Amino acid sequence: MNNRFMDKLENVLMPVADKLNNNRYLTALRNGFMVALPLIIFGSIFVVIANLPFIDNWIGEEAYATFQDALGPASAATLSIMGLFVILGIGYKMVEQRGGESIYGAVVALAAFLVLTPQVLDETTGVIPTSALGAEGLFLGIFTAFIAAELYQYFVNKKLTIKMPAGVPGSVARSFSALIPIALTLTIFLAIRIIFSYTPFETVQNFIYTIIQEPLTALGSGLPATLIAILLIQIFWFFGLHGQIIINSVLDPIWYSLNDQNYQAFQAGEELPNIVTKQFIDTFIVGIGGSGMTLAVLIAIFAIAKSRQMREIGKLGIGSGVFNVNEPVIFGLPIIMNPLVIIPWLLAPVVVGAVTYFAMSIGFAPKPAGVIVPWTTPAILSGYLATGNDIMGSVMQLINMAIVFIIWLPFLKIMDKQYYENEVKAK
Asked: The pTM is what?
């Protein structure tokens, strides 16, 4: 691959990636999910515990049902209503970016979302279904948080605030200062709700889900879009940009929504509807040593390395690589801007993504069960947990590691030979 092509590719991708990485909406979206992540993981851990295999055989079905009921609130209060936490996080981060009172950005975003949400379940009023607070409401929640935070900060910047006299406690003064901006923002959202009640959609939720979320979710759940996303992650990383953060900022809402659909089906004992989910990416691709699946690369290095440089990289990278932290490999091999590794770096995850999708589609491997497994969970264990405690999830990860090993092996041999020859000459 000649330097001219590399320069052209860099000139095209770097400005685009830089804009995406610094876009304040994508930044707030990413950080909003980070606010919710500890709660999501907490709920997922108890889903795993509540569905550990063979417990019903040990304690009996009745005791097992009691056991699951006792642990159920852990996921119901976190994972099932994850949309609420994401909304709070986005609203907070949006206003924080502008230097405003970020806590009011969080509460106005949540209140605006609740204003738009019908409080009706079947024929019972005054009740909000949890589905509206989870995956179904996630897209509306994201857009609502963006708009509500922007409106709130706009009214603050226009000085539409109440200024309390000196001597009033700061907390009281800030509360009154936020009164008019919050009231104006929520009035706009109330008007939006009233307007939509006269349309065929009846609610904003129905409009968002029909016009935007459903088509995007269908696209994001397909193999072609998934492989493109995986490829872009690798390309950005090759140029020194955190591809995972850039692409996840755009696709996480779709992947989390698909993940939640699988989780609901898993909890109900029904067939899992989706192959591509958040855990499909995180467990079967990124979760095997980090971006680029470099745990298998490290294993290959230990298998063939003769050069001291390559062996040292293996020693430095293996400890963190087991827990999916692979900066020692990315910067030490190196991978960034190294034309010798661009082919396996781009090719291996895409091949693994396609093979995993095919294996799950024919039933060889189980689909992700919707359980959010912490990203630092070592491979093999993570595959077992993410598929609802199915050993074939671990087997699929082993197959994926073998694929990466085979693809990388000839390129690592070339690099190792070069390093070894340079070391011999230097003696």
From this structure: 0.69
